[in-house]
């Protein structure tokens, strides 16, 4: 049996899957101040009456990291940066940053040593200002981390109570500002996340659940919970990822669709192209920060089934309806205090939730202000909500169409067209998706169990893993971006380094990915790894080629575990 649990802004959904089919589902209110309580409440509800020894796999989609960042509850982090030449430190918007001298070139060769006296003075300032967390990031530290490592030694000597995060271990990709942001967020949230994982493991032990436990990541893949503490920021946006994988699971294979997940607080948008979710090529954005976190190309908008419906008067005296962005509780028909789109859907009998009399009361209060009938007002509210979502999809397409994967998909289609399906996920989908699809001139699709599609996505998502390999044959070294380590080519089976071919580089990348997958306990999916990109550049000095640089990117892509059946899904 498989269990998937997804924490949403309004409800926490859970699903129990048995023999490839949905066996039971559960929904409990999400308590923003106590996500663990919400998760365990949903777990207990969905598993009631089932012996714990029958569970094989439990997957959580969590908003712990996202909420910490959104609510400003992260720990203070001092950023000790080594930007090198060509970068104006004043252009950075990072708080609590300290820039010091030192530089590596793009191949990892030292061109300016660090000034240890300056470093010690900076560490003294950091200590005196009360910082207990420091992220050390060098511009090309992923090519040679010796500066970062030496600074770490000095920090541990002078400020032993301080926790140190090194940029080359958090991300080995180029783009210094993104690596700084990712390192800062990893340091700021790591301890909170470790506590969350410890509490989860303790709660499962108390329930005698011995199943494998995973966390859903932003790229739609899962990671063993023990390993997730090494990569806490990768769990951001796991909610939108869950809805995307859920749509993939409960729609026919290979389809192209816009995924619209309508919750109580927000609506999440994603795109599936010929059965493959679209990945954001530039990484996830968290507020004002762009990161190196691999994630689906998604957007969340502040409109949902429980958004407040208000009547506003324009400067010309015309009364109009506004929806959201606030949510102060459930819909009026569910015991809330304000009229919402859910109440309008209940009046129109598009959903069967809550108290119909209370729904009529809520919409009547709006209708009286507009001078319209209750049915006219309910229809207007639903239409406005659908148009807000449809407009967000139109705007999102302007971003999606810039993604390399989307452009390749269009070329393969041999014609310019947009996806024909709009797949509805979430509690509000049944009432709103038809209207959204009509406005987008697309076909509405509401699969079975769409109301818990996020939880299904969490339950059946398979592990993902990426590996970015860089080889410098002149220096006879290679590095794996995700590990932050530099190793000698002498210990590989490659013969003449200077005559190395792309095929040999890709073979080495595949071997290293297998080793990494084994360390993470997900070796069973490594044979499905694929090369995402492979490039080679000659190193020329004095009209002669003296070496080659190889950049190979491989991944175990997002997908579904074989235990999930597509029988009857549509």
UniProtKB/TrEMBL annotation:
Residues 179-464 form the Hydantoinase A/oxoprolinase domain. Its EC number is 3.5.2.14. One of its GO terms (molecular function) is N-methylhydantoinase (ATP-hydrolyzing) activity. GO terms for cellular component: cytosol. Pfam families: Hydant_A_N, Hydantoinase_A. InterPro entries: ATPase_NBD, Hydant_A_N, Hydantoinase_A, Oxoprolinase-like. The keyword Hydrolase applies. It comes from the Archaea. Keywords: Hydrolase. Signal peptide: none annotated. This is N-methylhydantoinase (ATP-hydrolyzing).
């Amino acid at each position: 049996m498989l269990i998937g649990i997804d924490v949403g802004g309004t409800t926490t959904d859970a699903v129990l899957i048995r023999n490839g089919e949905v066996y039971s589902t559960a929904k409990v209110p999400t308590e923003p101040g106590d996500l663990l309580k919400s998760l365990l409440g949903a777990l207990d509800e969905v598993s009631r009456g089932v012996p714990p020894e029958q569970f094989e796999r439990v997957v959580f989609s969590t908003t712990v990291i996202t909420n910490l960042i959104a609510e400003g509850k992260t720990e203070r982090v001092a950023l000790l940066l080594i930007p090198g030449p060509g970068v104006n430190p004043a252009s950075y918007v990072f708080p609590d940053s300290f820039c010091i001298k030192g530089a590596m070139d793009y191949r990892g060769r030292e061109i300016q040593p660090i000034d240890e006296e300056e470093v010690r003075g900076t560490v003294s300032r950091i200590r005196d200002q009360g910082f207990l967390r420091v992220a050390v990031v060098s511009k090309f530290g992923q090519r040679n981390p010796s500066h970062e490592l030496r600074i770490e030694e000095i920090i541990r000597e002078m400020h032993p109570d301080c926790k140190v995060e090194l940029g080359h271990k958090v991300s080995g990709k180029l783009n210094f500002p993104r690596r700084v942001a990712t390192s800062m967020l990893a340091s700021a949230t790591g301890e909170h996340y470790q506590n969350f994982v410890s509490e989860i493991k303790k709660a499962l032990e108390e329930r005698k659940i011995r199943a494998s436990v995973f966390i859903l990541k932003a790229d739609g893949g899962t990671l063993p919970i023990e390993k997730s503490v090494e990569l806490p920021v990768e769990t951001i946006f796991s909610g939108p990822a869950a809805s995307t994988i859920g749509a993939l699971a409960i729609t026919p294979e290979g389809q192209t669709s816009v995924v619209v997940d309508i919750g109580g607080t927000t609506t999440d948008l994603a795109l599936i192209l010929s059965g493959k979710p679209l990945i954001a090529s530039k990484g996830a954005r968290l507020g004002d920060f762009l990161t190196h976190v691999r994630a689906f190309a998604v957007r969340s908008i502040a409109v949902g089934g429980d958004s407040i419906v208000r009547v506003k008067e324009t400067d010309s005296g015309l009364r109009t309806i506004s929806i959201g962005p606030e949510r102060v509780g459930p819909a009026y028909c569910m015991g809330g205090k304000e009229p919402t789109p859910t109440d309008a859907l209940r009046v129109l009998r598009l959903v069967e939730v809550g108290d119909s009399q209370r729904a009529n009361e809520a919409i009547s209060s709006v209708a009286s202000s507009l001078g319209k009938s209750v049915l006219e007002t309910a229809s207007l509210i639903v239409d406005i909500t659908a148009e807000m979502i449809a407009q967000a999809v139109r705007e999102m397409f302007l971003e999606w169409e810039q993604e390399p994967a989307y452009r390749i998909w269009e070329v393969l289609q041999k014609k310019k067209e947009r996806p024909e399906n709009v797949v509805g996920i979430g509690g509000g989908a049944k009432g709103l998706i038809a209207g959204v699809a009509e406005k987008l001139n697309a076909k509405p699709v509401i699969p079975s169990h769409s109301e818990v599609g996020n939880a299904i996505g969490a339950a059946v998502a398979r592990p993902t893993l990426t590996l970015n390999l860089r080889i410098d044959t002149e220096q006879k070294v290679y590095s794996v971006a995700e590990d932050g380590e530099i190793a000698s080519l002498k210990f590989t089976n490659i013969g003449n380094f200077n005559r190395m071919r792309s095929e040999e580089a890709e073979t080495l990348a595949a071997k290293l990915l297998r080793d990494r997958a084994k360390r993470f306990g997900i070796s069973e999916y490594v044979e499905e790894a694929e090369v995402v990109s492979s490039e080679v550049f000659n190193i020329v000095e004095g009209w002669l080629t003296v070496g080659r640089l190889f950049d190979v990117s491989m991944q175990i892509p997002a997908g579904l575990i074989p235990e999930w059946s597509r029988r009857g899904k549509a």
